[in-house]
Amino acid sequence: MSTDDRGGDGRDPGDRDERNVFGGELAPCGDDPVTGYLRDGRCHDVEGDIGEHTLCAVVTAEFLEYSRARGNDLITPRPEFDFPGLEPGDRWCLCVGRWVEAAEAGVAPPVVLEATNESVLRAVDADRLREHEFDPEAFEPGSLD
């Protein structure tokens, strides 16, 4: 790559310097299955992503069933969209609006704060996120019927 292909700061334009809700480096959300709007494992804030897939959650059966009932089937594989289908316990970059809706319904999945983009704070209060922080010791994914 020539220097002409780089941004004004000399970095590759594809490099991202995004932060998590703590202000630290945005950690990976998941790679099995690979998540993120860019399918690179991270919950980037991407121009053009109208769903804002910026919140890293560990999905539960309850949330997956709720989401499917609301018209967003995250369970059924859709290979044409490079989507493997999710199972309880998978990490996934969720749409902020869907997570807020699920929280209001009492079925929000836990949030991996280190992997949740700071842009989420525009829509969700930090205290609300902390109330739903993922705790691997207490996590119960449930099972799909």
Task: Give the arrangement of secondary structure elements.
Layout: E1 53-58, H1 61-69, E2 91-95, H2 96-104, H3 126-131
Antiparallel strand pairs: 1-2
List keywords for this structure.
single chain; alpha+beta; 8% strand; 17% helix
3D structure, described in words:
The chain is built from 3 helices and 2 strands, in the order βαβαα. It has 145 residues and is of the alpha+beta class. A two-stranded antiparallel ribbon has the order 1-2. It is globular, with a radius of gyration of 16 Å.
Q: Give me the strand/helix succession.
A: EHEHH
Residue stretches low in confidence (pLDDT < 50, at least 5 long) are: 1-15
Given helix and strand content, the structural type is alpha+beta
Mean pLDDT: 89
Summarize the main sheet: 2 strands, antiparallel
Strand content: 5-15%
Shape: globular
Into which percent range does the helicity of residues fall? 10-25%
Count of DSSP H/I helices: 3
Let me know the number of strands: 2
Distance between the termini: 51 Å
Spatial ordering of strands, largest sheet: 1-2
Rounded to an integer, what's the Rg over CA atoms?
16 Å
Task: Please give a quick description of this structure.
The protein is an alpha+beta fold. It is built from three helices and two strands.
